[in-house]
Design a protein that fits this description.
By secondary structure, the protein is an all-alpha fold. It is built from eight helices and no strands. The longest helix is centred in the middle third of the chain and has 26 residues, at 94-119. The chain is globular and about 60 Å long.
Amino acid sequence: VGTGAIGLLLLLLLQCGGGGGQPCSNRCLYGIYFVVTLAVFFHCSLFFHWDEWDVLFRLQNEGFATVLKPHNEHFIPLFFLIYWLESLVFSDHYFLFTALNAAIHALNTVLFIRLLQRLTPPNLMPKFGVYQAIGLLYLLNVVHVEVLQWAFEISIACSQTLLWLCCHQALNFVTDGKW
């Protein structure tokens, strides 16, 4: 499945760009990366794992107050807020929790390669496909396996999103003097 997904990705990336070195649109890249993320990393798990049960139990019994309590000596209210909102929306549908992680990971991949494009001087711009290949390496890197297969790790995916958005904003400030 993974090899087929990578082949599909490469074919779509070439079609999506329209040839002539034109980059894919953000929507096109996002859609392709999301499908590939699901194809490569998705596993069929119907059950929550490890700490997920404890936190979900506390969220169900104590509600929003759980967000402001430490867990295993860690005070992570932003993460618990996201997880609480997920539990309200998705209930006990584990697939939806992990699909959201995949969606955020695809977004992170697009943000990452767009940042690389912005950092590359115009006279050093590589040929079409180089950024998409770098994005593919980021997308399929084994570092992301746990983040994508364990719903509880949405905090890491969201942290990566904040990192890439901050990098884009910092670059805006450095280049334009605007936030």
